[in-house]
């Protein structure tokens, strides 16, 4: 049986309690990893402007793991925060939106309407809220044209000739019998004649 990846387990059981994880047979070392991933996931989700280094230091100090283990956990956490198939880009979008909203909230607290409008404008443009949603083309509704080979000339508007195959055979018979093979011989060319032609180039 193929060993299940930690990221797949986290997608399904990140917020399950320890007893549930034990009941479904998750190994103890994976349970411990899920607990630390869940802890940092929660912090990063609430404070998306925190840097990788801060999260690395929290992991190493709180859970007594190596830096390489911490960075591997961070990679998984980014996937969980963003899109599974495009983790890095989706995560940066998530962080950018968080920064726009944080700037908007700060401007609101400071009662700065100009800054509020600017933050809101940046948020709207970044998420392309000023554009219509693109319509998905229904490719599955396109039916390919069926073409069938035919010897019927009427399909392209040509009037058929009666007994065409017999007439073709008769023409072949008539003209093929008039063709005769003839004997021939190669004619040698004097090299000096070729030299004389150079004067006309």
Short descriptors:
201 residues, mainly alpha, 0% strand
Uncertain residue segments: none
* Gross morphology: elongated
- Number of helical segments? 9
Give the N-terminus to C-terminus distance in angstroms.
Answer: 83 Å
Largest sheet: none
Strand content: under 5%
Instruction: Output the radius of gyration.
Output: 40 Å
**Protein structure class:** mainly alpha
- Number of DSSP-assigned strands: 0
Bin the helical content.
55-70%
Give your account of this protein's structure.
The chain is an all-alpha fold. Among the domains are: 6-81; 93-126. It has nine helices and no strands. The protein has helices at residues 6-13, 18-23, 28-46, 52-63, 67-81, 87-109, 113-126, 164-176, 191-197. The radius of gyration is 40 Å and the shape is elongated.
Short description:
By secondary structure, the chain is mostly helical.
């Amino acid at each position: 049986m193929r060993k299940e990846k930690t990221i797949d387990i986290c997608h399904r059981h990140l917020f399950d309690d320890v007893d549930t994880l034990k009941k479904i047979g998750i190994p103890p070392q994976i349970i411990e990893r899920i607990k630390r991933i869940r802890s940092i996931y929660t912090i990063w989700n609430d404070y998306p402007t925190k840097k990788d280094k801060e999260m690395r230091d929290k992991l190493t100090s709180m859970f007594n793991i190596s830096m390489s283990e911490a960075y591997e956990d961070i990679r998984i956490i980014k996937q969980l925060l963003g899109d599974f198939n495009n983790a890095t880009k989706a995560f940066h979008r998530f962080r950018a939106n968080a920064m726009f909203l944080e700037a908007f909230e700060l401007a609101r607290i400071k009662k700065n309407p100009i800054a509020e409008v600017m933050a809101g404008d940046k948020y709207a443009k970044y998420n392309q809220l000023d554009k219509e949603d693109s319509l998905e083309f229904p490719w599955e509704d396109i039916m390919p044209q069926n073409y069938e080979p035919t010897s019927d000339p009427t399909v392209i508007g040509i009037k058929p000739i009666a007994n065409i195959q017999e007439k073709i055979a008769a023409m072949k018979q008539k003209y093929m019998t008039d063709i005769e093979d003839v004997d021939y011989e190669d004619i040698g060319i004097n090299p000096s004649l070729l030299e004389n032609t150079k004067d006309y180039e």
